[in-house]
C-alpha cells in the first residue's frame, strides 16, 4: 500500500507535457482545479475527464501507474461517498434503521466522488511530469511579484519543493520500518480499522527520528555547498516561454471559457 503512493514522484519522460515550461504546468493545474469546481453537471465532468485523459496520453505516463496511486486514497473516496449518500436530505430511496439513502444524497455522493477523483489525478500529473528542481523554479518565478512586498518567494518555493521531493523518501522509510517491525512480530493487518490505526502508533517515533535525521543531512549538505538562499542565485537553464508554451496557455484559457459557458448553459437548462 505504501509503495502505491505516487504523490511527489517524478516519472521520467520526454513527452510534450514534460517539455512544457513548469510555469505553464502549474497554471494549468490550478486552472483545472478551478474548472472542476465550476462544473455543475456530469456532462461537464465528462468533458474535464476527456481532456485529462488526453493529456495523460500525451504525457506518456502509464495510466496504470497513475491509477495505482489512487489505492491509498480509496478510503477517503469511500468516506466522501458514504458521508454524502447518508447525510443529504431528499426523497428516500432506501432506509434501514436510522440510515437512509435519498435521491439527492446519491446524486451528491457520485458527483463529489468524481470531482475528487479527477482533482487527484490532475494534481498528481503535475509532479509526475515535472522534476522537483523545475517545479521549484516555476513556483518561484510565478511568485516573483510578491517579492516587492517582502514575501520570501524563493524560500517558500524551496520548502514546497522539498516537501514534495521527500514524500517518496518518507514513504520508503515507513515501508522499511513496517517490514522491520513485522519481522519482529508486529501485526498491522488484523482487527478493525481502529485497531489497525492503533497498531501504527509505534511506527511514528522511529519515523520522526528518521525524518529529523534526513532534514539534518539535507541542511548540512546545503551548508557544505554554500547555499545562502535565492539572493544572487543563477540558473544553468533560464526559463523562457516558447511557441508551444504560448499555444498551451491559449488552449488553457479557451478551455476555461468553454467550461464557464457550459456551466451557464447547463444552469439555464436545469432552471
From TrEMBL:
Q: Which domain of life is it from?
A: Bacteria
Keywords of this entry: Cell membrane, Membrane, Transmembrane, Transmembrane helix, Transport
Compartments in which it is found: Cell membrane
Q: Which PANTHER family match?
A: SLL0384 PROTEIN
Q: Name one Pfam family in it.
A: CbiQ
Give start-end ranges for the coiled-coil region(s). Answer: none
**Assigned GO CC terms:** plasma membrane
What's its job?
A: Transmembrane (T) component of an energy-coupling factor (ECF) ABC-transporter complex. Unlike classic ABC transporters this ECF transporter provides the energy necessary to transport a number of different substrates.
The protein's name in its UniProt record:
Energy-coupling factor transporter transmembrane protein EcfT
The principal localisation class reads: membrane
Q: Which organism is it from?
A: Aminicella lysinilytica
Q: Where are the transmembrane segments?
A: 26-53, 73-94, 106-129, 246-266
Amino acid at each position: 500500500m505504501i509503495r502505491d503512493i505516487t504523490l511527489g514522484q517524478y516519472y521520467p519522460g520526454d513527452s510534450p507535457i514534460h517539455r512544457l515550461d513548469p510555469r505553464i504546468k502549474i497554471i494549468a493545474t490550478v486552472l483545472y482545479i478551478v474548472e472542476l469546481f465550476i462544473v455543475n453537471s456530469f456532462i461537464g465532468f465528462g468533458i474535464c475527464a476527456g481532456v485529462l485523459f488526453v493529456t495523460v496520453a500525451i504525457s506518456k505516463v502509464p495510466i496504470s501507474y497513475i491509477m495505482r496511486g489512487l489505492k491509498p486514497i480509496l478510503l477517503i473516496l469511500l468516506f466522501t461517498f458514504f458521508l454524502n449518500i447518508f447525510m443529504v436530505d431528499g426523497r428516500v430511496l432506501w432506509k434501514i434503521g436510522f440510515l437512509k439513502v435519498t435521491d439527492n444524497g446519491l446524486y451528491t455522493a457520485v458527483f463529489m466522488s468524481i470531482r475528487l477523483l479527477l482533482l487527484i489525478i490532475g494534481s498528481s500529473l503535475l509532479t509526475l511530469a515535472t522534476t522537483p528542481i523545475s517545479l521549484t523554479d516555476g513556483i518561484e518565478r510565478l511568485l516573483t511579484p510578491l517579492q516587492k512586498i517582502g514575501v520570501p518567494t524563493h524560500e517558500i518555493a524551496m520548502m514546497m519543493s522539498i516537501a514534495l521531493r521527500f514524500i517518496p523518501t518518507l514513504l520508503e522509510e515507513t515501508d522499511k520500518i513496517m517490514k522491520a517491525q513485522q519481522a519482529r512480530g508486529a501485526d498491522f493487518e488484523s482487527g478493525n480499522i481502529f485497531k489497525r490505526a492503533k497498531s501504527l502508533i509505534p511506527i511514528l517515533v522511529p519515523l520522526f527520528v528518521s525524518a529529523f535525521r534526513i532534514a539534518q543531512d539535507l541542511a548540512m549538505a546545503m551548508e557544505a555547498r554554500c547555499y545562502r538562499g535565492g539572493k544572487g542565485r543563477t540558473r544553468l537553464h533560464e526559463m523562457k516561454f516558447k511557441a508551444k508554451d504560448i499555444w498551451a496557455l491559449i488552449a488553457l484559457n479557451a478551455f476555461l471559457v468553454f467550461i464557464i459557458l457550459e456551466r451557464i448553459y447547463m444552469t439555464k437548462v436545469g432552471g
